[in-house]
Structure to design on (329 residues):
């Protein structure tokens, strides 16, 4: 099937009737790209076509469906209610086509195929090493593509079928349309500094003390930032004027070790550095709520043997992490 191939559907509803036109693969590609990037220009760049071509293709699709899929404004292209409703079905069609092509390419021994997954940066370095070791032992010829990013970015990759699965956090119900969430383990937040940091010797941490040092937190809008904000509030430091916001584990670690930073980070990311006495935990004003880390899948995923084995390896690693968490208490 090439880009001009199309699918048809029958429905009694106006939205489902395609008698006045036919939806083609390029319509779905452009629609999902704009959904993912929230911008016609960025979607065009990702598809290596021009912005007018994307705008024209989206307009054609809206004409076929007789609905507006996006509202264009200063903030980019915001999906309408109809756009959000259509997204999981468009992703299902594109995903099924990609999986079918991938299945054909794997028909010969010399083309074993690829699986792709999205994972939070604060989770990947902890969970994926044992997962990929187990998977490679079972499927040595299969390539694994790993995407990292914020939870919302990863969910968009899953919706657009760029990723087969995501290891992340539960989103709002509207953001989980067409997907399932299976909890793997719970992740506590901790606050760490280098082992000989001046705050290590303080009996209690106050807002005034925190203000003397760089404070590294997850970006605003992420779920784990909410936990960090609660802890900052308990320290009396909710009004700190200077914060460093990042999801990068390597940057957060470097800032803590070399810049005297106070780092708000999931426990599993730093447990080895704490065991090696490179980093030290600061006393928390209360036990922060554990964040739920889970496996997120599309309802319509194809049952491929390699993908199912990868999922099983992720579940095994998640159980190991939960055992470690329970042992901390």
């Amino acid at each position: 099937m090439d880009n001009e191939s199309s699918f048809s559907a029958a429905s009694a509803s106006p939205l489902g009737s395609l008698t006045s036109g036919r939806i083609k693969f390029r319509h779905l590609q452009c629609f999902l790209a704009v959904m993912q990037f929230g911008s016609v220009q960025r979607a065009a760049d990702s598809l290596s076509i021009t912005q007018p071509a994307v705008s024209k293709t989206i307009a054609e699709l809206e004409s076929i469906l007789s609905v507006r899929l996006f509202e264009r404004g200063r903030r980019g292209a915001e999906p309408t209610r109809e756009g959000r409703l259509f997204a999981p079905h468009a992703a299902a069609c594109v995903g099924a086509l990609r999986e079918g092509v991938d299945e054909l390419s794997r028909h010969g021994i010399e083309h074993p195929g690829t699986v792709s997954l999205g994972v939070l940066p604060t989770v990947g370095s902890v969970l994926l090493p044992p997962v990929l070791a187990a998977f490679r032992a079972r499927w040595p010829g299969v390539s694994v593509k790993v995407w990292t990013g914020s939870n919302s970015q990863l969910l968009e990759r899953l919706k657009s079928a760029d990723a087969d699965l995501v290891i992340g956090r539960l989103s709002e119900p509207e953001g989980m349309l067409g997907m399932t969430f299976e909890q793997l383990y719970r992740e506590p937040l901790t606050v760490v500094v280098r082992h000989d940091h001046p705050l290590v010797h303080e009996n209690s941490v106050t807002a005034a003390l925190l203000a003397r040092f760089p404070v590294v937190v997850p970006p605003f809008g992420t779920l784990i930032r909410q936990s960090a904000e609660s802890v900052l509030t308990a320290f009396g430091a909710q009004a700190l004027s200077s914060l460093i916001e990042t999801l990068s584990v390597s940057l957060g670690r470097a800032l803590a070790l070399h810049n005297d930073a106070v780092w708000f980070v999931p426990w599993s990311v730093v447990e080895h550095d704490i065991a090696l006495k490179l980093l030290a935990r600061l006393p928390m004003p209360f036990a922060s709520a554990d964040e739920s880390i889970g496996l997120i899948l599309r309802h319509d995923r194809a049952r491929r043997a390699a993908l199912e084995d990868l999922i099983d390896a992720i579940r095994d690693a998640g159980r190991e992490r939960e055992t470690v968490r329970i042992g901390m208490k």
